Amino acid sequence: MLKPVLFEQLELGEAFGPVRVVADDAYVKQHAFAADDYHPWSMGGTAPDGTRVVQSTALLADLLRLLNERYDPHFDRGLHQREQWWHGGAVRVGDELELEGRLTETYWKRGRPYFVVDAEARRVSDGVVVLRHRAVEAVGIGDPEALGSGSSQDRVEGAPSRRVAGAIPEGAPAAILPLGAGSAVGSALPPLSKRPTQTQVSVFSNVGAFWRTTHT
Length: 216
Prior knowledge:
The structure is a single chain. This protein is 11% helix and 25% strand. With 216 residues, the chain is an alpha+beta fold. It has three helices and five strands, in the order E-H-H-E-E-E-E-H. Strand 4 (112-123) and strand 5 form a beta hairpin.
């Protein structure tokens, strides 16, 4: 029986998986629709090495959902605070992957409980870790009216702000796509704007498994 995502129910060190995933054609197309990412290297074309590759972000949702192997997604009212990932290699269409994760931290900050899940995706054929992922989530969103009200404002007077303003530093060089070994560190990426539909959000949030969440 799945547990509700409550702080007192979280078990430090709890393991999730392993879960097997086959990155087949349907897997690629589902993510392409959800993320509006139809890069030719994935959608029928080939990368420079002659293979068809899976979008680099396709595995992120699956690694994040490992938590729901033990915790009920229908009663998860958390709020994501941070996402980090590290790529270890390309995933080709047809690869079989094994996903595993572990609850590595629980703590309180500014009067709210948090937990951290570290996870990885490993290619079954050669054991290479193609993606490592860390998710930090607050347990329960609390008062919805307080979201976005500035409760996470900088608290130390005189300290540099840790807020991300989205401003491009003056004089930053413009990056030329595609990025390569000669791309300068600190280059400004060209603007990217997407407007997802509710259907895309629902597909990304596992509506195919009939999950009823704040997203679907």
